[in-house]
């Protein structure tokens, strides 16, 4: 059964093993599979300037294996859209604020892309953001992702026209966080309740390990 | 018109902004007709891509096609041979019809289809494939005899097409969930499909065998199935459960 762990950047020591595996998979997915050569590193770990104590990770884990994840970063600090992708924004100004986060490095490992892992990760994303009082999340994505988000019940507004990045049409967009979207994506993921594992609720959640693997 | 890039961006965002107010398929068709005409498009269709046992007519979300061409296309099952549809299944990026390759030797009908489309004014075209979650596939294909397709216009067209698709999908979405089975009933049928008995399933799910039998009975009623096997077959067939 997939669970989604919430790990904060400052807990890096504590979750060293899982994060190392997560960074290794990021290298595998983004550098080796998708060919983002600029990110290549000899230690085969994709770690950049935003993997710091301000980042929060949602990491999908199934039977101790990392199978996907995403990174959230405050928009009140310099972030990837403001620093690298302002040209994707219609008015050139990044959407920033205390209730707005940026999502980067979303991935699901190859062998889990046909199942419900995407939906579960997206459900965890809405749930976490709702709990944190986040109103919108900005992201740069390849255009073909838009209908997937929308099918998951996400309300997404474009922040500019798509442009080619590394040979792919990409867009900057903002996802609205809402109960309605959470409800929709949960249903799609086959979930009846929360499965987000957070530090504060970790022990109780472990006591309620479901009987069924899905 | 001193800054055409800006101009296309404004057009695209006006179109997308206005979509939320449209509540019927006809309104979306009217809005598309008006906005896509700016780029020379005269006809368009938004449709799901059929599985081998489906007919494309049942998957069309909206269309503005010459009716004679639509009837010929659907009656003759042209979607099975249409090279635009084939490329849609393989590509996640939008493409122009002119970019579509096909082998007239192995698929002689492809040439016929493209030629016949021209007779209906559908000479040049642009197609946006949609690959959703859980294997859902669709496309928006548009055409005309004089298109304004360039690196300047394509990003605007791409974005507008994406949101047109989303709007019609939302408008046509059934208000309530189309899966009549509860999560527990689905789970029960999944275990049955994997060969588990009611007793096994009860143990796995941590409930009594009687509860499992009740879930199965209820699922049978909802699916109009004679027994458990029949219910599993129907649930799989209609994609109400996934293994």
Distance between the termini of chain A: 6 Å
In this structure, how is the largest beta sheet of chain A organized?
A: 9 strands, mixed
Oligomer: heterodimer
Molecular shape of chain B: elongated
State the order of secondary-structure elements of chain A, H for helix, E for strand: EHEEHEHEHEEEHEH
CATH fold node name of chain A: Aminopeptidase
Quickly name the level 1 CATH class of chain A: Alpha Beta
Low-pLDDT parts of chain A are 201-214
Instruction: Tally the structural domains of chain B.
Output: 2
Average residue-wise pLDDT of chain A: 89
* CATH structural fold name of the largest domain in chain B: Beta-Lactamase
What class would the helix/strand composition of chain A place it in?
alpha+beta
Q: In CATH terms, what is the architecture of chain A?
A: 3-Layer(aba) Sandwich
Protein described:
The complex is a heterodimer of chains A (214) and B (243). With 214 residues, chain A is an alpha+beta fold. Chain A has one domain (3-207): 3-Layer(aba) Sandwich (Aminopeptidase). Chain A has six helices and nine strands. Chain A has helices at 16-33, 80-84, 117-131, 146-151, 179-189, 202-207, and strands spanning 3-8, 56-62, 65-74, 100-108, 136-142, 155-158, 163-165, 168-176, 196-197. In chain A, strands 1, 2, 3, 4, 5, 6, 7, 8 and 9 form a nine-stranded mixed β-sheet that branches. The longest helix of chain A is centred in the N-terminal third of the chain and has 18 residues, at 16-33. Chain B is α+β, with helices and mostly antiparallel strands. Chain B folds into two domains: 4-172, 2-Layer Sandwich (Beta-Lactamase), CATH 3.30.450.80; 183-237, Arc Repressor Mutant, subunit A (Orthogonal Bundle), CATH 1.10.10.10. Chain B has ten helices and five strands. Chain B has a five-stranded antiparallel β-sheet, with helices on both faces. The longest helix of chain B has 19 residues, at 154-172. Chain B is elongated and about 65 Å long. The interface between A and B is medium-sized, with 29 and 36 residues.
